[in-house]
Amino acid sequence: MLNYEELSAHARNIRRNIVKMVTEAKSGHPGGSLSAVEIMTYLYFNEMDVDMKNVTSYDRDRFVLSKGHASPALYAVLSEKGFIDERELSTFRAINSRLQGHPNMNYVSGVDMSTGSLGQGLSCATGMALSNKIDENDHRVYVLIGDGESEEGQIWEAAMAAAHYKLDNLCAFLDCNGLQIDGKVTDVMNPTPLDKKFEAFGWHVINIDGHDYAQIEKALEEARNTKGQPTAIMAKTVKGKGVSFMENQVGWHGSAPSAEQCEQALKELED
Amino acid sequence: MGKIATREAYGKALAKLVVEQDDVVVLDADLSKSTKTADAKKARPDRHFNMGIAEGNMMAVAAGLAASGKTVFASSFSIFATGRAFEQVRNSICYPHLNVKVCGTHAGITVGEDGASHQSVEDMACMSAIPGMTVICPADGIETEQAIYAVYEHDGPCYVRLGRSAVEDVHPEGYEFEIGKGVVLREGKDIALVACGVMVQESLKAAKMLEEHGLNVTVVNMATIKPVDVELLVELAKTHKTIYTLEEHNVIGGLGSMVCQTLAQTVPTKCVCIGMLDSFGESGKPDQLMDKYGLSAEKVVERILATK
């Protein structure tokens, strides 16, 4: 287990790499990548039993990035874990790269599901959790969903199914950064209250600050100890977190910083 | 010669397979009595999961199971499995090349009384257009059983098109189905009928009737629409004046398109596509619909005599 300071150091590197990847690619989704950094850092470093030895197998805990456009966060985390050479990150979104705009599970060990089309990852994670139940193993499945993504009807089909089959080995994080491409989530197509909805669908629900490691840690422990139902962790986050000019700005959902903006962002992300 | 719906044969084969193979998982979307996956549920209840009336979720759950080493048979009516859940099949199953076997029953107009909303005439077009997808439309119960075992062995996603109504056996016992191989059921020399699914039995009947009109007719069962048997098609084109394709599907995007596209690039030959002529079906008895939409043996004969 890493302490919070060590986790923060990894998170800082991960944020720097996210900014660099999107800048170099001149495209990508920095806002929703930056909002998910603490959640994913904690999962990969302190929660999931994934390492160099077992990463090519599915006989372990797994993570599905249902909001696949946050691929820079995933690649940066996988690089931080040593599954991807850091130098490869500069190929993100380029021709012949393994690092596709949205993740492809067949190209990179550690990408546990190909995602990108919103709403499908929770179903895929449900299938994985169901498989673990069939095999009677103790592996857990984690999935990260966007709050905007929860406008997709399939999220609720999957929520129904996971509760129906009592998949207590499934834990979903809702990255509630409050923004989607066209504006505020509550303005575009209000999906709230997400906690009440998941509760009504039969999930155990926990509300946390998605940038606070202590709260993430406690919620994951509660999820592990919750039996007979899946857990949804509503993580209140800041889109663009860590880069002052990106924070809570809808325009940074899917646009790349200029060279100067990148420099400023990296400066802000120094120790 | 027996007579059984291909969905019945599917249920029987799957009920055996799910007991024989520990990695097989069966999903259905509240239609297990109709798709016949209920047989597999009876045979091995802990490997059958009803996903409710939510086909998109079912397909992506299937992908998650397959990403965990399972071989998944996911069933619904063909229109919902390939239409409603198209993009889940495309992005969650085919893009990562996972072992999900989409088995759509109640394909085509022989669904009958339920009408056009439930009669898929574009499912093979949708599935064929997805990179890496294998598309199979068996002609009878014997072939269906073989096809289910073949798709289980096949590495990657498959679509198997199955019918609601009983069809006659067109293959002898002991027939061996192979993905990508067409089978000559009747050898002639004037024209060749290349058919799939229920149209194989109609083609055999039509061939007999055409004999009385002095036509010596070859009949081929082309059960694999994709990858189609190019070698056999080239051979047929070299030895026959005209190729007729017959399918209970829109003539756009199905077997006819596949044959025309193949021959245009190899041995350009006159082809006539018999099938749904870019129209929806309607309610009625299956045989009435087959007649009205020009797919009964009698109507096929008329069309061939008018175009030979």
Structural commentary:
The complex is a heterodimer of chains A (271) and B (308). With 271 residues, chain A is an alpha/beta fold. Chain A has helices at 4-25, 30-34, 37-47, 71-80, 121-135, 153-164, 185-189, 194-200, 213-225, 259-268, and strands at 62-65, 141-146, 170-176, 179-180, 183-184, 204-209, 231-236. In chain A, strands 1-2-3-7-6 form a five-stranded parallel β-sheet, sandwiched between helices. Chain A has a two-stranded antiparallel ribbon with strand order 4-5. In chain A, strand 4 and strand 5 (183-184) form a beta hairpin. Chain A starts with a helix and ends with a helix. The relative contact order of chain A is 0.16. With 308 residues, chain B is an alpha/beta fold. In chain B, 40% of the residues lie in helices and 22% in strands. Chain B is built from 13 helices and 14 strands. A seven-stranded mixed β-sheet of chain B has the order 3-2-4-5-7-6-12, with helices on both faces. In chain B, strands 9-11-10-13-14 form a five-stranded mixed β-sheet, sandwiched between helices. Chain B is globular, with a radius of gyration of 18 Å. Chain B starts with a strand and ends with a helix. The A-B interface holds A 58, 64, 104-106, 112-114, 116-117, 119-121, 123-132, 134-135, 153-154, 157-158, 160-161, 164-165 and B 25, 46-47, 49, 51-52, 54, 56-57, 59-70, 87-88, 91-92, 95-97.
